[in-house]
């Protein structure tokens, strides 16, 4: 499956941003799925995922500011970032992987850049 992220851009600190991920087929039927990010000079990290059971999991450092959900009418995976900080600046990637697999073994999008200005 091919994934395409959208919604990145430049946002001021304290603002909000909504990222979307669409698939070549239907992303609504794929699980687990999730969002990851890689900041300059840092390793890639998990932002938020939706498990096979539909449970959402958000990185501890982002709880309270990040939500993930499926937009079924639009058939997209949505990541909402609120109260953004300069340290949220990163390339954000959408990923989908099958049951029993690691995210690295799944499909990844090309990423969408988020830049937060102070």
Spell out the helices and strands N to C.
EEEEEEEEEEE
Contiguous uncertain segments of 5+ residues: none
Alpha-carbon Rg, integer: 13 Å
Q: What is the overall number of helices?
A: 0
Beta-strand percent range: over 45%
Broad structural category: mainly beta
Distance between the termini: 37 Å
Helix proportion: under 10%
Mean pLDDT over all positions: 95
Main beta sheet: strand number and arrangement?
7 strands, mixed
Q: What's the total count of β strands? A: 11
Shape: globular
Q: Characteristics of this structure?
A:
118 residues, mainly beta, 7-stranded mixed beta sheet, 4-stranded antiparallel beta sheet, 48% strand
Structure notes:
With 118 residues, the protein is mostly beta strands. The strands form two sheets. Strands 2, 4, 5, 6, 9, 10 and 11 form a seven-stranded mixed β-sheet that branches. A four-stranded antiparallel β-sheet has the order 1-3-8-7, with no helix packed on it. The chain starts with a strand and ends with a strand. The protein has strands spanning 3-6, 9-12, 17-23, 33-38, 45-50, 56-58, 66-71, 76-81, 90-96, 107-108, 112-117. It is built from no helices and eleven strands. The chain is globular, with a radius of gyration of 13 Å.
């Amino acid at each position: 499956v091919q994934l395409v992220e959208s919604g990145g851009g430049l946002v001021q600190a304290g603002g909000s941003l909504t990222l979307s991920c669409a698939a070549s087929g239907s992303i609504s039927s794929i699980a687990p799925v999730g969002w990851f990010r890689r900041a300059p000079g840092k390793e890639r990290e998990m932002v938020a995922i939706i498990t096979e059971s539909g449970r959402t999991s958000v990185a501890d450092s982002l709880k309270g500011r990040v939500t993930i959900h499926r937009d079924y009418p639009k058939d997209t995976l949505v990541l909402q970032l609120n109260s953004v900080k300069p340290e949220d600046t990163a390339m954000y990637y959408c990923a989908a992987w099958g049951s029993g697999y690691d995210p690295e073994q799944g499909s990844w999008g090309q990423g969408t850049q988020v830049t937060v200005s102070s």
